Amino acid sequence: MLVFAASSLGEVVQQAAERFEADSGIAIHVHVAGSSTIGRQALAGANVDVFIPADRAWAEAILDERPGAVNVGDLAGNRLVLVGGSESGGSIDLADPTPPGNWSRLAIADPAHVPAGRYARRSLQSMGWWASLVPRLLPTADVRAALRLVELGEADVGVVYETDVAASTTVGVLARIPADLHDPIVYPVVRLDDRPEVLDFVDRLWNPEFRETLHLRGFTLMPLQEVGAR
Fold this sequence. Notes:
By secondary structure, the protein is of the alpha/beta class. It has helices at residues 10-24, 35-43, 56-65, 115-127, 130-133, 143-151, 162-165, 196-204, 208-216, and strands at 2-6, 29-33, 50-52, 70-77, 80-85, 106-109, 137-140, 157-161, 171-176, 186-191, 220-221. The protein has a 6-stranded mixed β-sheet with strand order 2-1-3-10-4-11, with helices on both faces. Strands 7-6-8-5-9 form a 5-stranded mixed β-sheet, sandwiched between helices. Helix 1 (10-24) links the parallel strand 1 and strand 2 (29-33).
């Protein structure tokens, strides 16, 4: 079985896959990359069984182009945060009309291709900061790469998912970006095959144990009644 998962969700999906393989004896491979990368690969005909991007647009693209694809439901949600290196300290007032002048480099996922970057761009536009920050942008292939630039000190600040910060010991949260400044951050699940083992794996993504894992990793849980027929 082949599962495609967005970078920010990769570790927890891999954990679910390992447990499933141990219980069932069925080999399962999790391919983790930015949503745009796994989306393009799925559209190109990759033999993927389960597709979990970081926004609805890529899920809808797969549903439109891949015969037999089924929208299972939104698995979880996430939040955007503004992060800086451990030496940056303090917090940032997002209500200020302009961003701090001492930011020379801002790392975000590429807004032209990556959901995290689109969420970041929309948020910064809503705050009135986008135009002044464009010359300072360092766009990256995915949100984890943006976090890495901040960790390495190659960017002063970055906009990443809150769940990514938990895995880092060298960055701190400067501000949590209000959810009403951007489209909802969700992880839809699309099933592209109806083999029994695929149905079983997808069903396990909504069991109490996995939902607790998502919660502990900082993801927001979607109401169970929003899940479609699996």
